[in-house]
Every structure is written in C-alpha cells, then in structure tokens.
Design a protein that fits this description.
Blueprint (H helix, E strand, L loop, with lengths): L40 E3 L5 E4 L4 E8 L4 E8 L13 E4 L2 E11 L7 E8 L14 E5 L1 H9 L5 E5 L5 E4 L7 H12 L2 E5 L4 E5 L5 E7 L4 E9 L6 E5 L15 E3 L9 E6 L5 H15 L3 E8 L18 E6 L4 E13 L6 E5 L6 H5 L9 E4 L4 H5 L20 E3 L2 E3 L9 E3 L9 E3 L29 E4 L12 E4 L5
Parallel strand pairs: 9-12, 13-19, 15-17
Antiparallel strand pairs: 1-2, 1-5, 3-4, 3-20, 4-7, 5-6, 6-7, 8-10, 11-12, 14-18, 15-16, 17-22, 18-21, 19-20, 20-21, 23-26, 24-25, 27-28
Helix pairs in contact: 1-2
Length: about 500
C-alpha cells in the first residue's frame, strides 16, 4: 500500500514543474543493462551525468508492488566523487531515476568515515504538484482518471490495460495527485508502475512474468519463513456503500456474499465504503476481496540469492512482480508465487530478501483505501439499527427522497414537499399548469446487466390530462455511444 511519502514537518522537496529535471527531454541511455552488479550514476538536476560511483557499497533497492521505491547506498569519505552527493541531484540505477533526499556522514570508532545516501523514486514528487483541479469522476476508466491526475505535472499516461469503470471522488483542492493515483489499485484491482525514464504511468492487471527462476533450499535459499493463517478468515460479507446502499439490487435481493469453499463455518464481516454509489461496482469489489478472505492466507519471507550474474545462469534472473518457484522438501513447500516486495542487494545479489505472494494482509490491508488519518473502506462488526431502518431505497438514484433538496437533480418547476414523504419525511412535488412543462431529471450510471427494474411511488390528486401527459421518460445510453429507443411510462390515462 502507499505510505505518506517523506512528509517531514513542513519540508517540501522539489515541486513538479519548477525544476528542469522533471521535464522529459531526451532519454538517457543507461551505462548498466542489468541490476546485479550495477553502480549508481549521479546526475545534476538537469539530468547531466556527473559521475559513476564504482566504489559505492551496500546498494539496497527496496521496492513493493503498489508501494515504496527507494534506494540507499554508502560511499567511502575518501572517495573524491563524494562532492556530487548533493540533495536533489539524481541517481540513475540501470534505467530508473531517484532523487537524493538525505545525505549523512558517519564515523564509528576507528573506522573510516563514510557517507550514507537515501534517495526516493522520481515519482514521489507527484505529491508536491499543484492540487488536483478535478475531484470527481463518474463511471470513468483508469486511463481517464490518470490523465486528469497527471495533467500539468510533466508525467503522462503509459500502458493502461484495465478498462472497467468506477466512480471516484477526492477532496477538491486538498488531495495531492499521488494520493489520488494511490486510490486506483484499491478501486480497480490493478497495479501501478511508474516509468521514471519516460515519466509515464502504467496501470495493468496484477499478472507477473514467469521468470523461470527457482528458489531451492541448499541452492540459493538461505532462510525461509512460511506463514499460514486464518485469523481474518471470512465466509459471509455484508457490503454497504454511500448512504448505506446495499448490494441487494445487484445480488438477487441478498445483501451479502458467501464463500464456503474452505470451511462451512459462518464467519461474518460487515464492510462499508462511502465511495460506492453503484451496487454492481460494490459487489464486484466485494467478490474480489472475498476470494482472498475466504481462504487461509499464505506468505513466504525468505533470503535468496540472485544467481543470474553467474556464468550460465542468466535464466535465474527475477524481478519485482515475477512469479518464481520456491521449493523446500523438508518443509513441504513447493509453490509458484509472485515477488511482492524485495530488498535487493545490488552489490551482493546473493544476499537479497524477498517477500512473496503477500505481506500477510489483514482485513484492513485488503479492503481499505489510502487516506491520511482515516480509511475509505472500514470494517464494522455491527451496523446501527437506525441505519438499517434508513437504508437508501433507490439504489441508483442519489437523493431520491428529497432529503437533500434538489441536489443531484436538474429541476424545472418542481417543489420540495417537506411533510409528505413515503420512506422519508420529504418528497418531490409538481403542480400542473396549462401549457407549462415541468421536469425533474437525473442521470445514473448502473453497471452492465441484461435487464433493469424501475420502481417508484407516485401520488396524484385531481389530475386531469388534456393535451399533455404525465409520466417517466427513460433513456438508456451505452458506453459506445449507442442508445435504445426511449421508454415512456405513463402515470395517468392520457388523452
């Protein structure tokens, strides 16, 4: 998950657009083509190459899927190239770029002094771009959202393979762009990848390359810890969205999802996410979560060697996100799992730490979004009875009971009746006038399905229709721009 990137008090590092290195310019050809044995290359803020640190030690690359990307290394104080280790200069490691954030000088006892450097991936600076100008996307694709979030930053949309639509709302003028991007993996289920050489952002399904590498005890596996747990096992999941919307309309009238594929025990959790206004989208998200929650979770933490640098073993190369085989006969481990996080030792690739498949996710890890101080998706053991009694009746329409005035509606001549409501205190009211058209409209964005149900409660008093008509007009428009024939539902006998 995304963290609060380097927000140290009031310090703000390079703001995008104000420093020249953030402009794309020409691609810088890497001096090293492979990670094992590579050395840091220092560039100034204009991406002018300054030095190759061939004497750098303890070069550790720490990365996580949808998470951190940072680089640390040490350089002997006596190395004359230390003069290039200035804050905000760039570090190139193969084809990735990092920004020097912290430089420390250390001496211990009689040991020679050395310099320690901490650098962050170039994309960390997206959090310091100007606030987002657009804060709400209705049934939008990831490519649309990413394009808006990157607008004016110098970054652009890369390879986006996920095309499903979701609704996302951020705090306008407050939410930074990196935080907005960090919502996408949770909302769409994909994975973000920042290409710091081309300054593009990819968003794809979580599919790892089958590297062909195998981690086998006594060959390249030094330590292994296998963890299997059912502490957060859930077999029945109740889901609630905005205004306590349920998934009933998308789930044959049933407000929960079930999965008893591992055990027949009923273990219930109630999940609420105010971002969801569409029960089909909420159900789809819940199904993805339940696939993980309904089974024991397994994870593997191990110290393994990257042997690909050795002659004849290039097939043993692996990268973050790759699927590798792990085998330990005595522990009965024989699995193919993805590398989700690593601490890669560039100088000593045989001393690399890998975290496979997952990081022992809790319920919160699986179902929460990323929000400073709070979470979008919250686990609740119970739902207040008063909330249950006030469930939003019309799952697609927002403010269907006129509780919030005409918000979400386009009104022409209607009024609010604050007394005569059906499922609430208020309702919408129109008084007929000869020759005057009065309308109340709202556009909704349901998910894909074969059929829809339209329901309403209407009260008419002394209604006489002459040459006019009274009813509900429905237009259905599809994502490809085509439309069905409009549907007219009369609410009275028409002349």
């Amino acid at each position: 998950m995304f963290n609060k990137y380097n927000q140290l008090g009031r310090v703000r590092y390079n703001q995008l657009g104000r420093l020249k290195y953030n402009s794309k310019g020409e691609s810088i050809k890497p001096l090293y083509n492979r990670l094992p044995g590579a050395r840091p290359i220092i560039l100034d803020q204009n991406r002018k190459r300054l030095a190759v640190l061939e004497n750098a030690e303890d070069i550790i690359l720490e990365q996580e899927i949808n998470g951190i990307d940072q680089l640390t290394f040490r350089l002997p104080w006596k190395d004359k190239k230390r003069v290039y280790l200035k804050n905000e200069n760039l570090v190139q490691l193969v084809n990735s770029f990092y920004i020097i954030r912290r430089v420390s000088v250390r001496r211990s006892g009689f040991s020679p002094a050395e310099i320690e450097v901490y650098a962050e991936a170039l994309w960390y600076d997206l959090q310091f771009a100007e606030p987002v100008s657009k804060a709400r996307w209705e049934s939008a694709t990831p490519a649309e959202i990413i394009s808006d979030l990157l607008d004016g930053t110098g970054w652009s949309v890369g390879n986006v393979t996920i095309t499903r639509q979701r609704t996302l709302e951020l705090e306008e003028g407050i939410t930074n762009r990196l935080k907005g991007l960090s919502e996408l993996p949770d909302l769409f289920g994909g994975e973000l990848h920042f290409n710091t050489d081309t300054m593009t952002v990819d968003f794809t399904e979580p599919i790892g390359r089958k590297s062909g590498a195998s981690i086998v005890y006594s060959k390249n596996l030094e330590e292994v810890e296998a963890i299997y747990d059912t502490e957060e096992l859930v077999t029945r999941l109740y889901l609630y969205g905005k205004n306590n919307m349920t998934i009933e309309d998308a789930n044959n009238g049933i407000p929960y999802l079930e999965d008893f594929s591992y055990t027949n025990k009923v273990r219930v959790k109630v999940i609420k996410d105010e971002r969801f206004t569409n029960p089909f989208h909420l159900k789809e998200k819940g199904e993805d979560a339940l696939k993980v929650l309904a089974r024991p979770r397994s994870s593997y933490i191990l110290k393994a060697a990257d042997l690909s640098a050795l002659s004849g073993l290039s097939h043993e190369e692996f990268f973050l996100g790759d699927e590798i085989m792990v085998y330990d006969k005595e522990l009965e481990i024989d699995v193919s799992v993805r590398i989700m996080r690593w601490k890669y030792n560039v100088v000593e690739p045989w001393n690399t730490e890998l975290q496979l498949e997952s990081k022992q996710p809790s319920l919160t890890d699986l179902l929460t979004g990323v929000q400073e101080g709070t979470s979008f998706l919250q686990s609740e053991d119970t739902v207040d009875r008063s909330e249950m009694l006030n469930l939003h009746v019309f799952n697609y329409l927002l403010n269907s009971r006129a509780d919030d005035g005409f918000n979400y509606w386009t009104n022409n001549g209607w009024e609010i009746d604050p007394v005569n409501g059906y499922s609430g205190n208020a309702s919408f009211k129109a008084t007929a006038q000869p020759g005057v058209t009065k309308s109340l409209k709202q556009t909704v964005y349901p998910s894909h399905r074969d059929s829809y149900s339209i329901s309403m409660r209407v009260s008419t008093e002394n209604l006489k229709v002459g040459t006019g008509r009274v009813g509900v007009y429905i237009r259905i428009k599809y994502a490809d721009g085509t439309e069905d024939e409009p549907v007219w539902i009369p609410l009275s006998e028409e002349a």
